[in-house]
Amino acid sequence: MIGPVISPEMVEEYDRNGVICVRNVIDMERVERLREAVKRVLSGPTAMDADAAVEEGRPVDPNSGIAKFRQAMNGWQQDEEYRALLIDSAVPRVAAELMRSTSARVLYDQTLVKEPGSPVPVSWHHDQPFWPVSGDQVCSVWVALDEVTPDSAPVHYARGSHLWPERYRPTVPSGQPFDSLMNCDLPTAPDLFQVPDADLVTWDMMPGDVLVFTGKTLHGSGANLRKDRPRRAIAARYVGDDARFIEGMHVLSLAFPEQPALKTGEPLSGDLFPLAWQNEELKVS
Questions:
Q1: Three-state SS annotation for 136-204
Q2: CATH (residue range 12-50+65-260)
Q3: Cα–Cα dist 55/281, whole Å
Q4: Is there a contact between 252 and 229 (Cβ–Cβ < 8 Å)?
Q5: Where are the domains of the chain?
Q6: Pairing relation of β-strands 138-144 and 244-245?
Q7: pLDDT tens digits along 16-51
Q8: Which residue ranges traverse the bilayer (predicted)?
Q9: CB of 90 within 8 A of CB of 3?
Q10: Tell me, what's the pLDDT at 57?
Q11: How many CB atoms lie within 10 A of CB 151?
């Protein structure tokens, strides 16, 4: 569980760009176990087919033969392998150290599977407007379970966009507004794939590599053009010391069987947001 060393230079890169790729965080033995766990979670109660909107904003017909973009939420509450990843691996330490936080708490996790040939894009967005959380120490760790190449729907990031003053509304993957959630009065994010001088960054990845990015970093992805393999990933979402709860309708309302007993401005705590890592040198006994 030792995992990679997070250097000061890596923290500075994360601070500057809002995203970083960290190699070899998860070994192949665990990757194989997680691939099996993904199958279990995608047959569970929170699994769904993402809004594909391939034509005229319409979801893909499950009987159409079109490859899907499948998601599930809060696998850690359903499967021990997910729980081990989010709480008992190097992942939360990597998140906390890059956030400059003394601790990392689980916000939730999201399974993201683009089947071979899936045409489904993910429109440009940043995550925090979806979530009931304020603060700067909020991040995702996107764990690659397959090789990621330019033709297998890599995630692209707008470098430094976490520092922009603009905030954008929640949308479904196709870019249609998510009208039932908070922050729907915000503008829709631009399609940065269509902006010639946009400063975008992406990485080729191997299974076990991770992307760590802030809750305010704009990102999006295209179709999985590969016909021979899926693009499977688990996004582990964490909050650090400065994160505070925000009341209102949020994406986690769709995943939690019970709602957090928290008020706006309170730190996240309790069984729904378990402590995953804490700096033992700073831990109060």
A1: CCEEEEEEECCCECCCECCCEEECCHHHCCCCCCCECCCCCECCCCCCCCCCCCCCHHHCCCCCEECCC
A2: 2.60.120.620
A3: 54
A4: no
A5: 12-50+65-260
A6: unpaired
A7: 999 999 999 999 999 999 999 999 999 988 888 765
A8: none
A9: yes
A10: 39
A11: 13
